[in-house]
Amino acid sequence: MAADFKTAQPVEYYRRFLKEDVRPDGRELGEIRHTTLNIGSITTAEGSALVKLGNTTVICGIKAELCNPTAEEPKKGFVVPNVDLPPLCSPRFRPGPPSEQAQVVSQLMADIIENSGVVALEDLCIVEGKLCWVLYCDMMCLDYDGNVVDTCVISLLAALKNVLLPEVTVNEETGSPVTDVEKKLPLNIRKCPVATTFGVFDDHYLFTDPTNEEECLATGVLTVVTTEDNKICCMHKPGGTALSESRLQDCINRALTRAEEVRKLIDETINSVER
Amino acid sequence: MQRYYSVGSNMAATDETSALLRSFECEQNLLSRPDGSANVRQGDTSVLAAVYGPGEVKMSEEIIDKATLKVIFKPKIGLPGCAEKLQERLLRNTCESVVLAVLHPRSGVNIVLQVIQDSGSLLSCCINAACMALVDSAVPMKCLVSAVTCAVMEEGRIVLDPDSKQEKESSAVLTFAFDSRENNVVTCSTKGCYTPEKYQECLSACGAASRNISSFFRQAVERRMSKEL
Questions:
Q1: Contact between B196 and A230 using a beta-carbon 8 Å cutoff
Q2: Which of A28, B101, B186, B214 is the most buried (most CB within 10 A)?
Q3: Where is the Exoribonuclease phosphorolytic domain (chain B) (predicted)?
Q4: Any idea which fold A24-274 has?
Q5: CA–CA distance from B113 to each of A97, B42, B77 (Å)?
């Protein structure tokens, strides 16, 4: 009966639950799904992490390559994020060129990396104007059940913290780079950005960590990315329900608390991984 | 075809204060083919917007209970890439939240935005242009939307409607779009790092400025209607 009602009247179905301050999956409005983190799952990558947020699963692998810095910025390396939403993860994605959603999330990741300054691009420089690292951060969604932005940010941060780069020296005579595979150094992570996404239902109910169903029914979403010094590095609200100042402040406060929890989780997991 | 031209004189920036907006100009109904068009100029930043619709929509994009909105964002130079996709999504969702799409089921509204000159506050200029073009095309809307960009300078000063030089020197750039009814935040997009306190400061500064823009929009429409009668 309940299943029929849900199929016929999804909005009304949700409304009934939210009236009682509970969501159909049993969570409270402010509750975030269980977060599971596995670091270093891909041995061939320089750094990797697998994150599960409820059913949503994202795996991030970071490959490092040597390249030439640009003439305009000879002291800077590159971080190139890419988010892949393959047809495997949800029926809404088709094979072929990246969907709009994938492009939007990729761009959002690039913005978050740049705004938060998680990796200083100067740290990636090896020889000024000659040689630098480029970090390809590929995030692949394996199961799309909403809130892919938060999951991607966690996987990206965890994978970056897991990166080990071999020491590179330049051969004086030939001028070619020589990598010392024995000596590996971790990347200097300057900031720890963590995203928290909120959904608005019926222009009134505010809930955290929306699932795919909730995202489809929501009248608006809001993503707040905060760093450990309690600063906001991205506030992304693409249209939808208009929110008042006090509600935005409420979201920021909740995002700060959530970010603290995620950082603790990442640190605990990193420490438990054997090198 | 008659063009309608309005200038926001009360908002012109002066040298001593940066809390004001740059000169704000709006020209409506300047293209003959689209159903609605507008050119919004904020200082030197200029965006041309055109609206086609409600009209036919591709079968695959058809939504049975409301109109499909599509935004095409054309940068001044080069081909649109990932960053433009994010802009398009932001603009589309902003317009979707003010257009009464349920009144035109199974139809499409196309909004084309062409950047003519970018000298700072481009996103807010795009949102304002899209809103004015929608008004000109007479697509039913529940309210207007007005956007304001502000920049937080290194020393903590807030500059409203920054030009590209100020944007480059700033530590953060925040863009807000407000609805004209309750002045709540419809859209928010930010660059750079800032504290929650600064965020609230920027929000209230932009909120106050957006009221000016809303009333300017109202004046522009009023002036136009009085000419038409």
A1: yes
A2: B186
A3: 21-140, 143-204
A4: Ribosomal Protein S5; domain 2 (3.30.230)
A5: 24, 15, 13
